[in-house]
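Quality-control log, excerpt.
Job 1 of 2 completed; input and output follow.
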Amino acid sequence: MGTKLKVVAEKEEFLLATGDDAKKIMSLAWRSKAMCEKRGIPVRWFYESRTRDSVRSACEDCTVRPECLEEVLIRHEQHGFFAGYSGNQRKAVYKRWLAAHIRRGKFPPGNHKIGSYRPQPIDRKIAQLLYKADHHVVKPDEGSMLQYLFEMLGDKPATIGSRLTAMERQGLIQKIWASKRRIEAIELTQDGLERIEADPSFIEA
């Protein structure tokens, strides 16, 4: 069996899972309402360019696209045409979706990765603390947000700083942590020195 056919077979096995196996992944009850299901579109069509128009047409008329999209994003499905998006189109959607979860102080279920970035346990804790601070559930004392995270997490400031930078580079968090104190942004962002040279007033309160 060729690599492409093997991938299709594996995806078909997942999509046709029933009983406890399917429940372990997530509830697929909505699938009976999916237009592709009603039209009897074969699973392999989702992975073949020559059948893309038929699949796209079904997606356009489908009432459960949000549920379908949520499933493929949780699975981090990178191939095929699902929920009205190709694999390449879903990359941008995936990043926005993951960032939205992080803004709510939590990571979605699943093993997520964007480029070279893969969430670590400390990232999940940082997201929770940033959410609480941003929504005034917990209000850090005046001064350093980095120091606040250090005190709450008990980890090295350099470690926390590098994780914040990694998340910010991927657009997963905004610089709400840096806005607490401008000097921190200069210390932790990659272009800090260039920004100081270009505009010395940047470090002024």
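Job 2 of 2 completed; input and output follow.
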Amino acid sequence: MTTLRRLPTLSSYSAGAPTLLVQLLLVASCLIFVAVGAGGGSAIAALAGEAPVSSFSCDFSSFHPQRYAVYHLQSQIKDAEPAITIDGVLNESAWEKTRWTDEFVDIRGLRHWSQPWFATKVKMRYDDNFLYVGAYLEEAEIWANVTHRNDVVFHDNDFEVFVDADGSTHNYKEFEVNAINTTWNLWLNRPYRDGGHENSTRVDLLHGFDMFRHGMKSAVYMKGNPNDAGERLHFWTVEIALPLRELALHSQAVLPPRPYTFWRINFSRVEWTVATTSSGGYVKVRGEVEENWVWSPQYAVNMHMPENWGYIQFRPHFEDEGFDSDVPMDPEWKVRYLSFQLYYAQHAFKVVNGYFARDVTALEPFFQAENAFKCMNVQQLNVTNDGSSFEALLTDAKRPGIPLYAAIIRDDSFIHVHKVDGDIMSVE
């Protein structure tokens, strides 16, 4: 397991025999800015805790994903709230007093030319055992063909949930459901881009991961019948209970979730173009690609980028306090964001050169996010001899009164963030 270790100060090393680690630290702290030109002074000032000059900014809060407060179902007053019944109808009082998320947008973000023409939104609650999800999907043509559980449901219009309990981007869970309540649930050890693979009963019938065996429930509701073009339907709703224990499997997440802690989550809706058949049903239009509408933008047609998923913050429910929907930004966000800009740049560099860069400055042309290179504070970069893998240690810019966060990120996108007391850390 990757761990963090405090480094001795530079003065504790023999002046006549600097170690490779010291050299790495000097390179990371000094050479990272050699190619930034006249703006270099601003970058160094920003990392030292001073406000950067107007030439650029190290504030990446505008890229922070969506956030949502999830309230516990059990009240601490005498009459506890009734349990949520998984029947597809979102009519319990627990749902009625819970706010909706923002409506979904195109997976590529709001700047993409095409945006959803049907509304999709979600509510969430939790108790000590389950995360409850209620979804509303506006739709005029409700249909589904997949009937076998744990088949590939997104070949139909569907609703999907993705959960990364500890924010590492590894060992996350996915759930999909279509309009006739055919479901598919799976566990991915890491994103597909990093060589990840599916674990489910679809690929291993006897031993595959399956939340259904541990209490997972789902139901769908609509005012009419699916697969009938004669019906005048307007929406369908989904109600889901996902077992927390299985969502957190093989992660560092604490159960039950501690109040005010974060998990990463996103929701997706797949929408296909269909035509009416002579028999009064629906058929997908050949040659048309699906639309992908999501809660928190992915900025690519790829749901398997967990670093872009939204945040839920678990909160206790006290009846007399009501529901406060404001959720703060993740204090780890900046170092997480910059760590993934380094990850993207390293992989872009490898596509061109066949190996990962050992010198951080060589990555500058491969950074896509404005100012990310200038704002990085890379403490250590380790690359294998053959250049096939890397591990980097980054810290947030230390500012007065602001805790310091250190992040370790690997070439397979695994990330671990740790709050530290300001000492320089190393990868061990």
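Post-run check on job 2. Residues 10 and 18 are 9 Å apart (CA to CA).
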